[in-house]
Amino acid sequence: MRKIMFAISLALAMIQPALVHGQTKAWPDQPIHLIVPSGAGGITDSLARILIQKLSPILGQSIIVDNRPGASGVIGSSYVARAKPNGYTLLMAFPSHVVNPSTVKNLPYDTAKDFAPITKVGSVAEILLTNRNSPINSVADLIKEAKEHPGKLNYGSVGVGSLGDLCMLLFQSQAKIKMTHVAYKGEPEILSALIRGDIQAAFVSPIAAMAMVKAGKIKALAISDKQGSAILPKVPPVAKAGLAGFDVTGWNAIFAPAGTPKPIVDKLNAAINKALADPDLVKKFLSQGVNPIGCPPETLQLAVEHDIASIGSALKAAGVQPK
Question: Which PANTHER family does this UniProt record tie to the protein (predicted)?
Answer without folding.
Answer: BLR1237 PROTEIN, TRICARBOXYLATE-BINDING PROTEIN
